[in-house]
DNA sequence: TTTGCCGGGCG
DNA sequence: CGCCCGGCAAA
């Protein structure tokens, strides 16, 4: 049925008709950039009204109430009125009145969206073509957009852990009220291609009308464009390795709409990743079952997924965008530390993904821990990040893993290596709870880890260790005994849960056949 | 009630 | 075989 194609998605980015500001009566179209709820006046009571911040064709932003705009999206987007799941998510916790559109930016929400939308979009470019064209022509300098995570810089004060906890607990991150200017801007701290500043939603609320931070024009979102794959390659040349970014795949994911197309899009589909100021850096983490690979570029992670997990050899062009579902972005707080090296601080992972490690048995492990773990230095460093690097690196590890397409299952049994793990593990677990309950997608634990000093050394050494461990594990009698009777029922997420009935076509075959899931094994 | 998936049917 | 679904049982 066609029903499967419908997915709930947010309206952010959706094209809507709104009353003409000029008063001439002719409706104008705009793109929803943010949604916020105003329930302040009414206090807790009920009516909470949603106010949509719409980016008009002329580049201006206006706010409209629900009644004022008509949904006229041409694409599948929200069919229903304008309300989105975002609302829910945002409303859940934050007591503070300022949630504004916020919720949407929470990682979970984003993730959700990307899951739901991403793939589909990329698959049917046609649907959006019209809007894309239109959008292209309107060049909006600020392509704001919503989707992503809004980053805030408030963390300056707090250390990463604190920040993570806060974010986690609130699930919505408050936009900062005042844009701090952060220091590191100049430096290279880290760019992030996405979200850093949040979509600036207008500030929301009461006070100002909003200023969004221009500084981040960006796009956070990346690729909204439907046509995913190619882009990666195409821009590779320009964008330096470092960013790689977002490429291809991700594209679809985030927000359905456009966003970025605007400005930068002219050249390439994606926005140019600019270095973002804060101390945050964006990394892309493989969500494949036991793989926690983290790469600094989207292109790299996609390639990793495509080749390692999906078993595809072709280049990005043959990708159908599926990779998008297997990785997520994580923001790292590089602040003082470091830039460098280590990279993955536990923090970020926790925020985004709660790794509910319910499955007690195996920790994170990564298949190729070492390789990833070593992390990729800041974006800048790895030149080839986009392409080769990941592959080449991962390669070795691949040996250990078995796998082919279905690596997923094979790897399961292994346990994680050491070093980083403890940290990571503990960290994760501790915060995770919060998120995990809420949702999703991150079913795997982040192998990532740590930060610290050990960086390079650990790499080599770690590698060895791990490898040995891994092997041992594998050799040991794998699952074996369990047999008998039913398979016990996996506790982890399964395709059905992850993709939902609507996207049944995205399920692994086994799930489709109602057989034991091969993709998300437990 | 939902969800994973076994067992079995059909082409 | 590939594909699908009835229906059981765990959650």
From TrEMBL:
Pfam families cross-referenced by the UniProt entry: DUF4772
Residue stretches of biased makeup (Basic and acidic residues): 111-127
An individual GO BP term: regulation of transcription by RNA polymerase II
CC per GO annotation: nucleus
Highest taxon of source: Eukaryota
Domain C2H2-type: 284-314
Keyword Hydrolase in annotation: no
Location in the cell: Nucleus
Keywords, in A-Z order: DNA-binding, Metal-binding, Nucleus, Transcription, Transcription regulation, Zinc, Zinc-finger
Compositionally biased spans, kind Pro residues: 352-366
Region of interest (Disordered), residue spans: 81-157, 186-272, 341-393
GO function term, MF aspect, one: DNA-binding transcription factor activity
Stretches with biased composition (Low complexity): 196-218, 341-351
PANTHER family reported in the protein's UniProt record: PAPILLOMAVIRUS REGULATORY FACTOR PRF-1, ZINC FINGER PROTEIN 704
The protein, known as: Zinc finger protein 704-like
Organism: Salarias fasciatus
Lineage start: Eukaryota, Metazoa, Chordata, Craniata, Vertebrata
Name of the gene this protein is made from: znf704
């Amino acid at each position: 049925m066609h029903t499967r194609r419908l997915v709930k998605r947010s309206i952010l980015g959706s094209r809507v008709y709104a009353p003409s500001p000029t008063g001439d009566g002719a409706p104008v179209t705009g793109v929803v950039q943010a949604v916020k709820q105003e329930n302040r006046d009414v206090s807790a009571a009920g009516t909470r009204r949603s106010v949509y911040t719409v980016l008009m064709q002329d580049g201006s932003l206006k706010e409209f109430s629900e009644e004022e705009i008509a949904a006229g999206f041409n694409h599948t987007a929200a069919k229903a009125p304008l309300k989105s799941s975002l609302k829910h998510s945002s409303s859940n916790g934050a007591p503070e009145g300022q949630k504004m559109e916020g919720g949407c930016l929470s990682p979970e929400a984003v993730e959700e969206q990307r899951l739901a939308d991403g793939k589909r979009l990329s698959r049917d470019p046609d649907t959006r073509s019209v809007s894309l064209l239109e959008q292209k022509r309107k060049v909006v300098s600020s392509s704001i957009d919503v989707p992503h995570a809004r980053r805030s810089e408030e963390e300056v004060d707090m250390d990463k852990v604190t920040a993570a906890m806060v974010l986690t607990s609130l699930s919505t991150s408050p936009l900062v009220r005042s844009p701090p200017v952060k220091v590191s801007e100049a430096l290279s701290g880290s760019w992030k291609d996405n979200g850093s500043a949040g979509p600036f939603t207008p500030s929301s609320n009461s006070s100002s009308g909003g200023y969004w931070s221009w500084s981040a024009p960006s796009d956070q979102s990346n690729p909204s464009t439907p046509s995913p794959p190619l882009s990666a390659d195409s821009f590779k040349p320009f964008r330096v390795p470092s960013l790689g970014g977002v490429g291809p795949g991700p594209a679809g994911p985030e927000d359905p709409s456009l966003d970025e197309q605007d400005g930068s899009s002219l050249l390439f589909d994606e926005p140019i990743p600019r270095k973002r100021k804060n101390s945050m850096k964006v990394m892309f983490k493989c969500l494949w079952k036991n793989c926690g690979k983290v790469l600094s570029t989207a292109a790299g992670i996609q390639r990793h997924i495509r080749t390692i997990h999906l078993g595809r050899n072709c280049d990005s062009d043959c990708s159908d965008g599926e990779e998008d579902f297997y990785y997520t972005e994580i923001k790292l707080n590089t602040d003082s530390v470091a830039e460098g090296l280590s990279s993955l601080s536990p923090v970020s992972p926790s925020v985004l993904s709660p790794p509910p490690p319910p499955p007690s048995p195996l920790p994170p492990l990564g298949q190729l821990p070492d390789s990833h773990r070593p992390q990729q230095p800041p974006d800048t460093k790895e030149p080839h990040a986009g392409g080769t690097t990941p592959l080449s690196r991962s390669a070795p590890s691949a040996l250990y893993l078995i796998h082919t397409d279905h690596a997923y299952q094979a790897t399961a049994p292994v346990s994680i290596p050491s070093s980083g793990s403890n940290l990571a593990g503990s960290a994760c677990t501790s915060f995770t709870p919060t998120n995990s309950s809420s949702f999703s997608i991150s079913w795997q634990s982040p192998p990532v880890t740590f930060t610290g000093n050990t960086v390079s050394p650990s790499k080599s050494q770690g590698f060895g260790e791990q490898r040995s461990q891994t092997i041992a594990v594998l050799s040991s009698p794998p699952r074996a005994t369990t047999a008998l009777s039913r398979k016990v029922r996996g506790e982890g997420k399964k395709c059905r849960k992850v993709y939902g009935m609507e996207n049944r076509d995205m399920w692994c075959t086994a799930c489709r056949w109602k057989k034991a899931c091969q993709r998300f094994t437990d």
